[in-house]
């Protein structure tokens, strides 16, 4: 059984090389305008394509069956997310107590729907409303 598998492996791996040699001989004979050149060219190209696809399919099939089907455990890789989440709206609106007043969050300028007026780019020093008040 093992000798048969090894023989098929050798055939599968040498078939593209044999196809290349047959194609090269076919091109040479074709350049001499001999009829067997066409046959060798077609046989060589066909064996090259068959060898490449056979090797590809065999490799894919063996990789598919190499998976461990006996293992019933599922490995789930997770990241501890709470520390990576941004702060809530309420937390982001209340500044830390040790910050100076110059670094407090500033409210953006009011939206100007009329584009003919230049927007007022000065920032308001008043604190934005709390989230509960805006609802």
Please describe what this structure looks like.
The chain is mainly α and 135 residues long. The chain has a domain at 2-65. It has helices spanning 2-31, 36-65, 89-93, 131-134. α1 (2-31) packs antiparallel against α2 (36-65). The longest helix has 30 residues, at 2-31.
Task: Please specify the SSE layout and strand pairing.
Elements: H1 2-31, H2 36-65, H3 89-93, H4 131-134
Helix pairs in contact: 1-2
Count helical runs.
4
**Radius of gyration over alpha carbons?**
37 Å
Q: What's the story with the biggest beta sheet?
A: none
Strand segment tally: 0
Quick one: overall form? elongated
Q: Give helix and strand order, one letter per element, not per position.
A: HHHH
Distance between the termini: 77 Å
Roughly how much helix do the residues carry, as a percent range?
40-55%
Strand content: under 5%
Low-confidence stretches: none
Report the structural category.
Answer: mainly alpha
What integer is the average pLDDT?
A: 76
Could you write a compact summary of the structure shown?
This protein has helices at residues 2-31, 36-65, 89-93, 131-134. By secondary structure, the chain is mainly α.
């Amino acid at each position: 059984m093992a000798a048969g598998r090894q023989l098929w492996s050798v055939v599968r791996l040498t078939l593209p090389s044999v196809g290349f040699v047959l194609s090269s001989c076919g091109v040479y004979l074709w350049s001499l305008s001999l009829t067997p050149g066409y046959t060798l060219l077609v046989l060589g190209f066909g064996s090259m394509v068959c060898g490449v696809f056979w090797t590809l399919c065999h490799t894919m099939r063996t990789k598919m069956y190499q998976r461990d089907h006996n293992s019933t455990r599922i490995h789930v890789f997770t990241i501890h997310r709470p520390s990576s989440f941004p702060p809530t709206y309420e937390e982001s609106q209340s500044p830390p107590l040790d910050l100076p007043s110059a670094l407090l969050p500033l409210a953006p300028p009011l939206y100007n729907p009329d584009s003919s007026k230049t927007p007022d780019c000065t920032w308001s020093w008043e604190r934005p409303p709390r989230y509960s008040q805006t609802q």
